[in-house]
Known about the structure:
This protein has helices at 17-43, 48-55, 72-97, 104-129, 146-155, 162-186, 193-211, 217-234, 240-248, 257-272, 284-300, 303-327, 334-341, 344-370, 382-391, 396-406, 411-439; strands spanning 58-63, 66-71. It is an all-alpha fold. It has 2 domains: 17-187 and 237-252 and 302-439, Na+/H+ antiporter like fold, CATH 1.20.1530; 258-297. Strands 1-2 form a two-stranded antiparallel ribbon. Strand 1 and strand 2 (66-71) form a beta hairpin. Helix 4 crosses helix 6. The two termini are 14 Å apart.
Amino acid sequence: MKLYAPWEKAFDKIATPFEHFLHAQTTTGIILMFMTIVALILANTPLTDEYAHFFHTNVDFNVGSWTLSNTIHHWINDGLMAFFFFIVGLEIKREILVGELSNIKVALLPILSAVGGMALPALIYMSINNGTAGEHGWGIPMATDIAFAISALVLLGNRVSPALVTFLVALAIVDDLGAVVVIAVFYTEQIQMFPLALAGLSFLILVSFNRFGIHMILPYFIVGLGMWFFMLESGVHATIAGVIAAMAIPSKPKLTPSDFTNRTRNKLDEYDNYPVTTDHMLHEKQKAILLNIQDEIDSVNSPSARLEHNLHLPVSLIVIPLFALANAGISIDFSSMGETILQPVSLGIIAGLVLGKILGIAGVAWLAIKLGIAKLPEGSTMNQIFGVAFLGGIGFTMSIFVAELAFIGNETLIFQAKVGILCASLFAGLFGFFWLKYVAAVKPKI
């Protein structure tokens, strides 16, 4: 498998779905980094008031006497991020069905490492914050930002084995699943049962669409939108609707590959029967045949695969950058930065994302390999697993998201959390990258 950079012109290359996934995550990581820098600049210049005012502007949706009102910041975090979580759900489903998590022998190492990489950071955070105002933030250092982590590995090219990349992908997917469960179970304050029941009914409708073989996207979108609204009203974070909806999207195509081949070949034979005009214009029948072939292509590709492929770009270029712009802008006072970092919340997050991820990911992986439960990814070393464990300490997107939920209404603790996340992610990312490039590097194959 050849890994390529996001700026590479690969129009003549047939890429596998996994390569498209890596490409999308790398692109997301680079854009995310750029928008984070923009947010920090806006928050630390004379534009800071305009920056804050814009994202706290209310946007209302009115239907008769009914009104749904939220700030732009909340529309991004509660609304647009549902599409991000929908992609997360599709990725989790794909990995379980046909990816690295479909084979338990292969999946055991990343699963165990991910569990260790979630549990140890939470325990370290709680050991520092137990009994304080910030103890509710224990879920913040559990998360790994898949886009940033994969970007770092992809930029290393053939210095790391493809198996190490798939190990990180599987680990991050399990990590995302854990984060979704934590958000749904532990960061829901009050539950309204009637809207929650309606959300459950919406999910059953989506499942029935799947069981009846409906492959059109529109019905799923309409019911999924309703489920998002009911989830929002229930008190469970609305973005969870994105993950749940993804589970109901069909993963099996309408046509088998052999049926597709036979039907397409027959249509191409029919297409060739029409004479070529002098001006090389297509016959009307040929145009109809091409449209029919396009339908056949859609039928041999499952709705979940189509959605994952089609939504990656808008989520990467619109949703994630807007989330970073709305949430990463913190006003930095360098004279008090040392004091802020030493606050229990910041310190707990930094210790959790750096020390906790290393002990959790690398430590559990080493133990599992020594006990013979699992084995190293092909072509990789324990030294490289250590470097990947550092990359696991990049908690950016999901960590900030959890911080906003954990400390709702407490701007001081949210600020301390974001400082800790940014510091830990920067250190973990740089250390992990340079460790893998210079210390744990394998000799590139020529």
